[in-house]
Structures are given as C-alpha cells and as structure tokens.
C-alpha cells in the first residue's frame, strides 16, 4: 500500500536513523554491554576511503573490523552525528569548513594530538603547510583533523565543443547566455549547485544575501534548470559529455571529470573560471577534505592509527586513486609520494593546471542562508519540469 | 486466544517492520522544519509549506506518469496475457520466463543499459549513424523516454496478474457466449473482459502504486527533466536535510495513493466483479 | 416417428485427432421434434460428436446437414442451435435475468421485451420471478440447471444440445430434472439431442437412443428396442446389471463351455456361431423344481441388496455370478449361503453375437 520501493527503502534506512535519534534524545542507552572497541573502527566518509584497497591492508595489520560508510553530501553526515551517532563513528571525513565552524563548536568531534600530526604537514604541498587554516580550530591552537584529498570544483566542459580558454574567460556567464539552453547538464550535487547559482547570478555564495540577491538567485535558478538538458549523477554527466548529448555541465572538476579522463577522454576537462564574484575576484571554488576524530565516548584507539596510516606515501597514492573518483592529495608535496604517480595519472587529475586552478579558487565554505537558497532551487527544479 | 497467540509473532513483525516506521514518518511530518527529533511541539507548518510551494507539480507528474503507464500497460499487456493464457500453449512458459528474467537484474542496471542504448552515438543512434548514415535527434532525457522506461520496467507487474485474470475465464463460458450467437467482440466485451477483471484490476492497482513511487526512470532516462514526488521527498531527506518536510510529503503521497486505491476498489468491488455480492 | 421429416442428417461424419478417430463415420438421421440421446462410456466420442454438431469443433470429414443445408463450415455463433454444457457455463458475473436475456441482448432485443421473455421462461421452468435479479452463484444446482435451460430456450434454437448436464446432480434431483426436461421437450416441441453415459437417464427421456462405442454408433433404436433387443454384449452390459453366459453353437445346440451343458435359446439367428446369452435380472426366477422354467441352474446365495422397491440377490453358480431382482413384495426370504435354484424361460433371454 505504501508508495514504491525506492522511497520505502529510504524510509526504512531513515527510520533506523530516526530510531537511533529517538533513543539518543530520550537518553535511552544500550548499557555497558559494549565490549572494548580496540579491534573495531567505524568511518563515515566520502567515497574512496571506504574502498577495499585502502582498508584491507589496515584491517590485516591490526586484525581489526573496519566499517566505512560513504555518503555524498556533508550535511547528511553531520546530521547523523547530531542524531546521536557519535556513539557509532570514530572518524568523519567531510569538506573543509564543517570541522572548524560546525562540528567542533557543537562538540561532535575532538582535537587530535598536535605533536603526533604536525610533522606530517611538513611534507605536504606548499599551499597546505602548517598551520593550515581548515585543520585548526578558530583560535589556531588546536589541530582538529588531517587533510588529504582536495580539488577545484566549478564546472566541466567538453573541450571539443568549448575550448578551455573560452570556458575560463566566459566563466559562469556560460549559463547566462540564452544560446546555451539545452546544451548543458547539471550534476546532482545540490549544495554545490547553490554555490554555482550564486556565482552565475553574480555574487559571492559564502555570505548572507540581500533580498535583491535572493531575487537574482531565484531568477538564475529558474533559468538554469529550465535550460538544462539533463540533471544526474557523475556517471550520467560523463556519459552525456562523451556521447555529445551535452557540451558542458554545472558543478564539477577533478573529482567528477577524472574518471572520464583516466578512461582516455582527454577532452573532458574541469574548468576554473579566470575571474568571478568571490572574495578577491576568485573565479572558482575548491574543496579540501578534513578527516576528524569523532567525540565518541568509547572512541576506538584505532582512530588516530588510521589517520597516521593514510599519511603514508603509498597509502596516500592509493587514496588518490581509490575506486570511483581520482583526486590530488596534499601528500604529493612529498617526493616519495609524488613519484608514485604515473604521467597518465597526473593527466587524469589535471596536474598541469592544478596549482593555478587552486590559486584562482575560493575555498568551500558554509553558506549562512543555504536552507533558504536550497528551497528556492528545489522549487526551481520542480518548476522547470512543469512547462 | 490461541489464534491471537499464534498470530502474535506476525503481528509483532508487522508492527516493527511496517507500523513503526510509518508512525515515525507521520510523527516527523508534524515536527518543526529541519528538526531531528520527535519531541518538539507538533506543528502543521510542513503541510502549509507544501500547499504554498510547488510540490503540486511533482504530485501531478507522478500521478500523470502513473496513469499513462497503467494505460499503456493495459493496452500492451492484455494481448500478451491473452496469448499466454490461451494461444501460446507450450510456448507460454518460455515467454513467461523471458518476461521474468529481467526482474533478476536490478532496475537501475537495466535503466543504465537503456541509457547506453539510446544515448547519442550509443548503441542505437551510433549504429544508425555508422551503418545507415542517419543522424537522429537523441530521445534521451525527454518525457516520453521516462514513460517508455516506466512501461518497460512495470510490464511484469501488469502482465502476470492479467494473465491470471484471463486464464480464470472458463473456456466454456466463451463457447457458451459464442454458441448463444455472440460475435467475437461481444464475447470479449460481455464475458472475457468482465470475468478477467479481477486480474486486470489487481494489475492496475499494482502498477499504479509502483509507478506513483517510481523515481529511477525520471532520474536516469529523464535526466531529471521531471521531478516526481518521490524525488521531491528524497531531496527533502538528503540535500535539504528537512526530514519533517520529507515526512509530510510522504504522508500526503500515501494519502493520495490510498484514497485513489480505495476509490478504485469501491468502484471495482472485486467480490461484485466475481459475482459474490 | 418415421413420418416426421429429418431435421438433422449426419453422413459419414468423422473427427480425427492424428491417426485416432474420435468419431468414426457416423450416419444418422434425427427427426424434427425428436428427443434423441447418444449414450456411451467416457471416451466413446459422444462429446466430440455433439461439439461438432454445435459448431465448436470442425469435422474432419463427412457432412452435417441441417434441414437440407450443409452446415459444416457455419461457425457456432451462426448456427440455429444451442448447447447446455456439462458445466452449464453460466456467466457468473451476471444475474439470473441477465443470463437468460444474454442471447436476446446479443440480438439487440429491447430491454423491456427481454425482461418479459426472461420472466416467462422463469415461470415455464418453475423458478420464482424474484430470481430475476439474483446472482447465479447464489442459486442451487437444480436452479442453475433451469437457468441454463432457460438461457438456451431464450435463444429459441431449432435444436438444443445437452452435454451431460445432469451428471453432477444427486440422484433424487436428477430424477426430477429428467422428468422436467421431458416435459419441457413436450411443451416446446423442439429437437433435443442429449448425451449421457447413463442408459437409465436415456431410457427415461428419449424417443430414440443411439449407443456409441469407440466413435461408432453401434445401435440406434427406441428405448424398448435397445432394452429388449441389445445388438451385442457391449450394448447389453451397458444397460446395467445383466446376466451374461458365453455360448457357442455345436450340433444345433447352444452350448455353454463353462457350465458344460446346453441352454434353450430364444430362437437362433441365421449364421450364429458364438456369442452371449443375456438374461435381465428381473426375468430370473427362483424355482422350486428344474421343471418350472425352460432353463435352470443351481447355486448358492452369496449376498442380497435392498434397492428401494426391489431386492437384488447375488447368486454364485460355478464360476459365474448371477443377479436376480424381485419386487420387495414378491421377494423370498433367503439365508446367506443357502442353496437355491434359479431359472428363466427362453423368451426372456436375448442371444447376442460377439
């Protein structure tokens, strides 16, 4: 009698989470029956860290049960902790601002030992040297997580249709040209789409917006979704780009384009606009993952072990090329790590332009009025399907 | 009492598996927006937000696509069901198997297969182009494509109840009607159709309820050019992190579907159809 | 009978399934208004035959001629005939009235006229008019029989076929319905062609009976002819419990090898060599002395059965079991295993060929 299987399945998953939330909220506890957790580790992460290539050597070395669940957006992961799952997870891997601005102040994560981890920063790429902002708390005293994968993330073009130079020069205005309607797709990555729509509308996403800006955002959202040929996941975007269904797509970069490039499609390229509305006239947006230790009352001792394990040059290379997507890692500043990358791999992650793209990109940040903008965008998506 | 005791495990199973999540969803639908507990004072703001917003577009698409899916399936499946029940003879099990096999492959995998088949320069258009020099517009990411995908995915759910319905018609009633002077069309209209109605109605309900909840076809083949209501719910639960809104949408969907199903069941009282009134 | 014109003529009618002939060269004339019954065991081809006549099964060869017109290729829905099925094949989703009106509705008769006709048929078949709106599924077995017959009569066919419609009905009701059917036959004056595996049923209703065996009509005649002069052992045994003694002709005498003696025959047909002597149980008598009948045998009472108004005795004589039936009032009181003398007169026996 219920609607249909997909939502139902979702409901079941969510209901489990709800039950957990409910249990936590009412102070319900399973008691002290839990055994000491020195042989188990639970990681909540973006895809990649949950791959067997990364986890299996660690499992064997420690004889441990390692469970990693991958999700594809930050707020969902953080809400899992808010809903009482700090008792479940040991490590959380999300994009840069959340640790410093949200999870630490809310007590969802806790700092890690500076003495142990500071030396690792010495071997990272120059842009990430100690004290790196997003790995530190607001006071700059505490180390709150380790960094590894990063990348510019603005949009992707098929350079056979739109040259890299044109794309970088036109930037976000590609979506303001009515002639482009029907030629592009939109990656289903709604938080990033909110940022990008702000850029298209001509203002910085990472601030509180005026009513005038909200109106412009609404207009841009309606227009951009109306003109989209397809909205979908990364695989769909890459298929559509390669096959010629679309010429370029909103939200994307090394993270999304690298699988297509690694597959030999060198005409698929992440683009960082030369200029844009962000602070300092920066044209693109970049992300840096921060992996933090969850404020778990029964934290597994393996949590910090794992953080150190992934700093190893070889493991770093594995993380960079874990199944799914391929990304640069900060550990490439270490020659021992960098040398593990083949020319093909460097080309897949657009190493040739990585430094300049990162320099032109503002760092992912929290949008104060995200909820409002997201609702407007969701509404625009539905409205686009009406006509 | 013994009956109750024996039924208790099942009742508990249903309570945990079905009633509890359902109650949780209903409970959440009355919580303040973007909250994550069930202990806030109840509010109707989620329902107000839905009625003030444009989710009606998504409801509309889901219902329209479901109705069209059911209509097309009815036209496609009845002749096949008739064939399976009456004409194909020893080939019927083979054909039934052919219709069953795709069910063993995940729906998403099949839909991605279709995507690769229909995509520009893909199996279909690429072949047409290289072999016949025909360059056609891609059909992918269009609304008819969504409908095609849904019709394809739900064929077995209409076909099998329908086949059962058609095979429930006693052959002698057909012969009797013919013998009493009815033409083939009159036999169909007066005897076969009404007597196979239970299977047809069950097929209609099953495919309608499944199709209203369809999401993958619009996402994969439609490229999200249509946002069905289940997708709207999914957005609320994921990116928007607005569980109460998602829950309220889900409750409304259940209500709409439930009312429609009850309405149909009243109109097509199965007992009456079977003559057990 | 013979002065009435034939309504249906079958000429060498054959139906083959592969090499097997389910109906094998049947020739038959059925008179207008006749109640004709085809009797045969299951598998004798009688159902295939009636389905060919009704147009539900194409004939392999031969002719079906209705009032002088060959109708082999006329489909069932264009033949002026109608069948009452073994399952009755009522429309379960329709009321009694709708079932009866079905052929009228098909013909486009206006609703008021349809209803009038349906109510008249309900009366004729002794069903209350209130049944008009009742679901057929709520009717009893006997009521359904009447509805099925009413529906067929509403079609107003020239010939009505019946495919064992009473076979699933209990004995007492069956007896009632048999008589009712015969009454309806008389009232309507239509030609009825009925098939059954029960000769008893056929006897009650029919003007003539055709006995069918392995796709062929082995004997056609009035109930009396069939009863008193069965053409062969099959026909005679098909008529229920009979006493059969294998015999052969030797030196002008009818000899039974198993009893090692001769019997007095009812008259020897020309060229008779061997066959069976058939004596119906009610023609058997208990004798005080062997001289009381033309033929006699001594035996022992094995068992006796009360059959309502009659008592049936099972007598063992030699390797044979004989059946003797007496009306209850005339039945002697016998002890089990008592020695008895049984006999019959030659005129009460029938000599049939193999």
Please give a structural write-up.
The complex is a heterotrimer of chains A (387), B (277) and C (354). With 387 residues, chain A is of the alpha/beta class. Chain A folds into 2 domains: 38-150 and 288-355, D-Maltodextrin-Binding Protein, domain 2 (3-Layer(aba) Sandwich), CATH 3.40.190.10; 151-285 and 366-384, Periplasmic binding protein-like II (D-Maltodextrin-Binding Protein, domain 2, 3-Layer(aba) Sandwich). Chain A is 42% helix and 17% strand. In chain A, helix 8 runs parallel beside helix 16 (370-384) and helix 9 (234-243) crosses helix 10. The two termini of chain A are 31 Å apart. Chain B starts with a helix and ends with a helix. Chain B has helices spanning 2-28, 45-52, 55-87, 92-100, 107-118, 123-132, 143-167, 171-179, 184-212, 216-220, 229-237, 243-267, 270-273. Chain B contains 13 helices and no strands. Chain B has a single domain (55-273), classed as MetI-like (MetI-like fold, Orthogonal Bundle). The mean pLDDT of chain B is 90. Helices cover 74% and strands 0% of the residues of chain B. Chain C has 354 residues and is of the alpha+beta class. Chain C folds into 2 domains: 6-233, P-loop containing nucleotide triphosphate hydrolases (Rossmann fold), CATH 3.40.50.300; 241-353, RNA polymerase II/Efflux pump adaptor protein, barrel-sandwich hybrid domain (OB fold (Dihydrolipoamide Acetyltransferase, E2P)), CATH 2.40.50.100. Chain C contains 8 helices and 20 strands. In chain C, strands 6-7-8-3-9-10 form a 6-stranded mixed β-sheet, with helices on both faces. The radius of gyration of chain C is 24 Å and the shape is globular. Chains in contact: A-B, B-C.
């Amino acid at each position: 009698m219920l609607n249909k299987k997909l939502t139902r399945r979702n409901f079941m998953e969510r209901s489990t989470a709800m039950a957990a939330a409910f249990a936590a909220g009412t102070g319900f506890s399973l008691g002290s029956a839990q055994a000491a957790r020195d042989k188990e580790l639970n990681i909540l992460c973006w895809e990649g860290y949950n791959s067997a290539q990364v986890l299996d050597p660690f499992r064997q070395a420690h004889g441990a049960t390692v469970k990693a669940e991958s999700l594809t957006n930050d707020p969902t992961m953080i809400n899992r902790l808010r809903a009482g799952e700090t008792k479940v997870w040991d490590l959380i891997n999300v994009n840069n601002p959340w640790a410093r601005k949200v999870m630490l102040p809310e007590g969802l994560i806790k700092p890690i030992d500076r003495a142990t981890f500071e030396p690792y920063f010495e071997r990272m790429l120059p842009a990430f040297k100690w004290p790196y902002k997003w790995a530190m708390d607001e006071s700059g005293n505490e180390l709150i997580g380790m960094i590894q994968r990063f990348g510019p993330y603005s949009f992707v073009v098929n350079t056979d249709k739109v040259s890299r130079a044109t794309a970088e020069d036109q930037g976000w205005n590609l979506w303001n040209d009515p002639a482009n309607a029907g030629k592009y797709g939109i990656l289903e990555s709604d938080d990033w789409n909110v940022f990008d729509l702000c850029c298209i509308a001509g203002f910085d996403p990472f601030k509180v917006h005026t009513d005038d800006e909200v109106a412009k955002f609404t207009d841009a959202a309606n227009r951009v979704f109306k003109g989209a040929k397809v909205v979908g996941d990364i695989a769909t975007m890459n298929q559509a780009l390669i096959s010629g269904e679309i010429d370029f797509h909103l939200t994307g970069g090394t993270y999304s384009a690298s699988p297509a490039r690694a597959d030999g499609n060198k005409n698929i390229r992440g683009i960082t606009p030369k200029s844009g509305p962000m602070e300092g006239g920066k044209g693109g947006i970049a992300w840096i993952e921060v992996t933090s230790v969850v404020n778990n009352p029964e934290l597994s001792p393996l949590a910090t072990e794992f953080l150190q394990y992934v700093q190893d040059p070889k493991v770093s290379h594995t993380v960079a090329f874990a199944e799914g997507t391929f990304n640069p890692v900060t550990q490439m500043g270490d020659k021992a790590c960098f040398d593990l990358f083949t020319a093909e791999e460097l080309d897949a992650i657009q190493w040739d332009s990585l430094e300049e793209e990162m320099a032109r990109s503002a760092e992912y940040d929290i949008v104060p009025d995200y909820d409002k903008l997201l609702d407007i965008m969701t509404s625009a998506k539905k409205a686009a399907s009406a006509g | 009492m013994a009956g109750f005791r024996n039924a208790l495990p099942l009742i508990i199973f249903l309570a945990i598996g079905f009633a509890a999540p359902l109650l949780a969803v209903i409970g959440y639908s009355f919580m303040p927006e973007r909250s994550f507990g069930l202990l806030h004072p109840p509010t109707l703001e989620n329902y107000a937000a839905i009625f003030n917003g444009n989710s009606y577009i998504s409801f509309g698409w889901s219902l329209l696509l479901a109705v069209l899916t059911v209509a097309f399936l009815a036209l496609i499946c009845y002749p096949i069901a008739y064939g399976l029940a009456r004409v194909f003879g020893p080939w019927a099990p083979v054909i039934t198997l052919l219709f069953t096999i795709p069910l063993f492959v995940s729906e998403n995998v099949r839909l991605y297969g279709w995507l690769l088949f229909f995509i520009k320069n893909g199996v279909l258009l690429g072949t047409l182009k290289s072999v016949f020099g025909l360059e056609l517009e891609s059909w992918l990411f269009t609304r008819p494509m969504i409908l095609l995908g849904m019709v394809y995915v739900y064929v077995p759910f209409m076909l099998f109840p329908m086949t059962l319905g058609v095979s429930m018609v006693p052959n002698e009633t057909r012969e009797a009607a013919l013998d009493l002077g009815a033409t083939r069309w009159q036999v169909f209209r007066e005897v076969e159709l009404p007597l196979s109605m239970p299977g047809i109605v069950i097929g209609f309900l099953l495919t309608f309820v499944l199709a209203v909840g369809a999401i993958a076809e619009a996402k994969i083949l439609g490229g999200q050019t249509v946002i069905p209501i289940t997708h709207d719910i999914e957005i609320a639960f994921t990116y928007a992190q607005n569980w109460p809104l998602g829950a309220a949408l889900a409750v409304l969907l259940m209500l709409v579907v439930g009312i429609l199903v009850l309405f149909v069941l009243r109109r097509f009282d199965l007992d009456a159809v079977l003559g057990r009134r | 009978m013979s002065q009435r014109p034939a309504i249906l003529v079958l000429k060498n009618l054959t139906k083959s399934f592969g090499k097997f002939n389910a109906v094998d060269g049947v020739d038959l004339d059925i008179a207008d208004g006749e109640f004709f019954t085809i009797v045969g065991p299951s598998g004798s081809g009688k159902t295939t035959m009636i389905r060919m006549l009704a147009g539900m099964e194409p004939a392999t060869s031969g002719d079906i001629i209705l009032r002088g017109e060959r109708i082999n290729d006329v489909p069932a829905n264009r033949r002026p005939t109608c069948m009452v099925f073994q399952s009755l094949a009522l429309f379960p989703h329709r009321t009694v009235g709708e079932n009866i009106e079905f052929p009228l509705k098909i013909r486009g008769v206006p609703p008021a006229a349809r209803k009038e006709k349906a109510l008249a048929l309900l009366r004729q078949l002794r069903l209350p008019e209130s049944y008009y709106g009742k679901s057929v599924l709520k009717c009893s077995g006997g009521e359904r029989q009447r509805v099925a017959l009413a529906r067929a009569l509403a079609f107003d066919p020239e010939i009505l076929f019946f495919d064992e419609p009473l076979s699933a009905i209990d004995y007492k009701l069956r007896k009632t319905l048999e008589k009712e059917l015969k009454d309806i036959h008389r009232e309507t004056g239509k030609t009825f062609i009925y098939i059954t595996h029960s000769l008893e049923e056929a006897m009650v209703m029919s003007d003539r009976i055709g006995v069918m065996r392995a796709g062929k009509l082995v004997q056609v005649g009035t109930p009396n002819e069939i009863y008193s002069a069965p053409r062969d052992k099959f026909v005679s045994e098909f008529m229920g419990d009979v006493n059969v003694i294998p015999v052969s002709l030797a030196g002008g005498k009818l000899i039974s090898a198993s009893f090692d003696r001769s019997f007095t025959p009812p008259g020897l047909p020309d060229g008779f060599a061997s066959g069976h002597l058939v004596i119906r149980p009610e023609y058997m008598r208990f004798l005080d002395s062997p001289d009381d009948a033309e033929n006699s045998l001594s035996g022992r009472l094995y068992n006796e059965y009360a059959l309502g108004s009659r008592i049936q005795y099972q007598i063992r004589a030699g390797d044979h079991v004989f059946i003797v039936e007496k009306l209850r009032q005339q039945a002697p009181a016998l002890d089990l295993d008592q020695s008895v003398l049984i006999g019959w007169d030659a005129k009460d026996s029938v000599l049939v060929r193999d």
